[in-house]
Hints:
The chain is mainly α. The chain has a domain at 60-158. The chain contains five helices and no strands. The protein has helices at residues 3-16, 41-46, 64-89, 106-129, 133-156. α3 (64-89) runs parallel beside α5 and α4 (106-129) packs antiparallel against α5 (133-156).
Amino acid sequence: MYLCLTVLVWTLVISSSTTAFAEEPLTGAPRGCVAPAVTSPKAAVQSSPSALPEAPKPHRFWDGKNRLLFSAVAALSAADFGVTHMNLANGGRELDPIVRPFTGNTATLAMNFVGETAAVVLVSYLFHRSGHHRLERMTPLANLSSSAFAVSYGLSHR
């Protein structure tokens, strides 16, 4: 329901600091970082890159977790559409001011929820491509929570 606001907030977070939430190591040393002086061969062995733990392997975008999350987003979006449509048909009104203009026609209301689901996948993909894997997973979770609230509210106020 509040997808546009969620997308706006996440866009502002990313545009203000593109590397703040990055989980992949940056290429090259960070600014202001000076490499330690190696004084003995033993110290050189200890500071070699092979002694460092390996970075986690980047995952594919369409891995099992994302497929499950996006399936849940689509299912809850369909449930939200069904509950909203049922309530509107029985004389109810849409409380979300962003969705309200689409309530006059069933097709436009359905396209709103389809677009919402597609936007969640797109924003999550953009986070994935920029290396923000936690935000990639949090985007569908935020939509799931808002859709679950909308469905439960709509069912309890029929």
